Design the sequence.
């Protein structure tokens, strides 16, 4: 047998990895799609029982129906998350020069309009650079990261979210940091943050399905960047987003 060169071996491994990724994306998409039909039946028949027999049921039975409806709604959100995850790897990414200053401001404005009742101290820089990114993907990432900061500072009377920049370890990149004074998390459980449906807080404390950071990191990676997060219990959270700078 002829010796296989290191280059050929690497090429074969890359092809195998691409095939595994494609299979996983197809599997995730199939699971998300095929589970929707029985879920629709659960929702539909649950509503029919509620409408037709609801007034005849006692409080305990009414509670059972409410649990069915709430669980079905939650499962629908999980399937939406799986569907989004299956599309991240195959979605077209168009890298172009994007004004990071405008992108951050737009994300903050959208979040503020969605939560007009919140009083938050936003501290934003005024000299953010131009980065090489997909404008739509970057906006999704920024809204996810800033939205998390907004969500986890909700218990604070004086919520504070600070956005800053610093040089990244990788040459030609810029690091954007989002620091908040929210509830934080136990750093021992940090590895769960980027797991599918990984949650560090209960659904009773904060909404969400544990998919946002997973999607955000995959989107950042597709733009040639990195995403990391640190936190302490009751001491806030710090998210570091690294992106390539636009040429020139």
Sequence:
């Amino acid at each position: 047998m002829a010796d296989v060169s290191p280059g050929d071996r690497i090429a074969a491994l890359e092809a195998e990895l691409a095939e595994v990724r494609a299979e996983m994306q197809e599997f995730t998409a199939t699971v998300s799609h095929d589970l929707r039909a029985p879920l629709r039946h659960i929702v539909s028949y649950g509503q029919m029982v509620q409408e037709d027999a609801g007034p005849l049921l006692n409080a305990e039975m009414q509670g059972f129906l409410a649990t069915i409806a709430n669980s079905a709604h939650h499962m629908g959100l999980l399937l939406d998350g799986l569907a989004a995850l299956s599309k991240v790897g195959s979605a077209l990414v168009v890298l172009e020069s994007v004004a990071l200053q405008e992108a951050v401001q737009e994300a903050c404005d959208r979040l503020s309009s969605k939560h007009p009742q919140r009083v938050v101290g936003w501290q934003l820089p005024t000299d953010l650079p131009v980065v090489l990114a997909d404008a739509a993907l970057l906006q999704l990432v920024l809204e996810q990261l800033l939205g998390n900061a907004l969500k986890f500072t909700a218990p604070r009377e004086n919520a504070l979210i600070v956005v800053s920049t610093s040089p990244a370890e990788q040459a030609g990149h810029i690091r954007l940091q989002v620091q908040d004074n929210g509830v934080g998390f136990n750093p021992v459980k940090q590895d769960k943050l980027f797991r599918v449906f990984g949650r560090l807080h209960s659904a009773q404390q904060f909404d969400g399905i544990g998919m946002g950071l997973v999607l955000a990191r995959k989107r950042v990676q597709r733009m040639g960047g990195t995403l990391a997060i640190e936190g302490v219990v009751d001491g806030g959270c710090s998210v570091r987003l690294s992106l390539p700078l636009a040429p020139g």
Q: What stands out?
A: The chain has six helices and seven strands. Helices lie at 6-34, 36-53, 59-88, 100-114, 135-152, 212-222.
